[in-house]
Structure formats: C-alpha cells, structure tokens
Fold this protein.
Amino acid sequence: MTGRASGTRRPEWPRGDRAKAAAKLMAAWVALLWLLELADVASGHALDRFGIVPRTPSELADVVPASFVHFGFAHVAANSVPLLVLGFLAALGGIRRFLAVCAAVVVADGLGVWLVSPSDTNTAGASGLIFGLFGFLLVSGFVERRPLGVLAGVLVAAVWGGSLLAGLAPTQSGISWQGHLIGLAAGAAAAFAFRRRGRTRIPAA
C-alpha cells in the first residue's frame, strides 16, 4: 500500500505559552544585566575588564562576556528597553532559534569589534546584540515570506529605526558605531541562516 504523508514536525507551543516564555526569558535577561552592573559598581568597576580591547589575543576570551557588561547604570538603562522589546519579538519565533540567533550575533559582533575597533578602546554592552535583533526582525519576515513577519519588521523600523540608525554615525564620540554596524549585518545574515522552512511532504509506504 502506498500513499503520501506529511513530514513530521516538532510540536510547537501554543502562541500564548510562547509569548509567556519569550517575556520571561527577556525579563530575566535584562534583570541579569542590571545585576551584573550592580556587581560591577560594588566591585569598583572590576567587570569593565571584560570589555573588548581590539587586536589583543587574550581579549578574544571576552567576545561573549562583553555583551553582558556595561559602563554605568545609564548605559544599561539605555539598552534595557530596546533589548526587552526586540528580544521579545524575535523570541516569539521560537526560543531555540532565538538563542541561536543571539549566539551568532554576539560572537560575530564581538569578533568584528576585536578586529576593526580603534586601538586603545574598550567596548562592551548589549547594543551590538540590539542592532543584531533589529536587523534580524527587519529581514526575517521577507526571507520567510510571512506577512506578519513583514509587518513586524515594518513596525520595528517605524518605532526604532531612527534612533537605532543614528547609532551608526561615525561622528558620535564614545559610541562603537563599528559594533553597531557589525551587529546589524550579523542579524540580517542570521535571518537567512536561521530562516524557518515550510512544511515538506515525503512519500510513505
């Protein structure tokens, strides 16, 4: 007996549960950043050494930690809301995929900063990841041909585009525009690398 059957797919959470999981994850992520900054201040800014100093071999170990360290409460406060919102929207597409996208952006951005940032600088903060999530959300809906994804990208661009893209200006002092640009490019690339594929059908006997 022959026939055709749908390929197996992993069960997905209901949308309500996925939204709750995304919200909890991002709330915990942002809370961690604040706890780390509290520890940094309490230790006399001992955690600042986990920022990335370019082209120093030992600093490659700080490529990932640098995304969780900030230079003061104003710095972490400025990153908290965009990270919370953009991270939540990106995580709605699946927690595992979201974590894979974040890992790819953080590593690519950190390595890029290590390679191209000016000498005698120390770069840290979640802004590279924020730009990566921004790029991911802008591109993923078009890549996957999902109307809701396209709408989300348009809304994100309308709300955050002006303020975020201003961070790409090389004229701003004290801002790693290189890290922002690399993060944006890494997020857009991640939209292709981690795109969700449509359901396939396979023959079954």
Observations:
- Residues 11-196 form a domain with the Rhomboid-like fold fold (CATH 1.20.1540.10).
- The first strand starts at residue 3 and ends at 6.
- Strands lie at 3-6, 201-204.
- The helical segments are 15-42, 73-91, 95-116, 127-144, 147-165, 177-193.
